[in-house]
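Appendix B, example 12.
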Amino acid sequence: MKRLFLAFVLGMSVLASGSPLITQTVEAKTSLAREGWVTHKTKMTFKDLNARLNAAIKANGMLRVTSASASAGAKGRGITIPGNRIVGVYRNDFAIRMLEASLAAGIEAPIRYYVTEGTDKNATLSYKTPTTVFSPYFEDGGDALKALAKELDTIFAKIADEAVR
């Protein structure tokens, strides 16, 4: 009986630790549609859309300054979730202009794209428009921040369009 109890406790601790010995599959259940978001569903694979996004960022003179992927982290724990990657995009000249207009708006940089994989294995590219991201700071950032956001709206739309074509 003692051995059975110890086996049970050991098994539960392995499950709780997220050990790579246990494989799980988790499905995403929520829509990405939100006010202020732009979403492009594609027929591309997750890997291909990420590569095209990186190329479009570079081609438009912007920089990929951050990247994070819950699916890559989960894979290391033996958990399979649909592909997802957050890519932060910005450039220093925009950062300086943003901070001159509103120091508080600095928390929003870099602005992010979100690449997700559907159950059909097709990838989607989504992002909040820069105008949406910076709108809470328009009161203190004034016309300078509004103009910056509008300029970035154009750049981010161009990057997205090139990535999904």
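The beta strands are 24-25, 37-41, 63-68, 79-80, 84-90, 111-117, 123-128. The CA atoms of residues 24 and 79 lie 5 Å apart.
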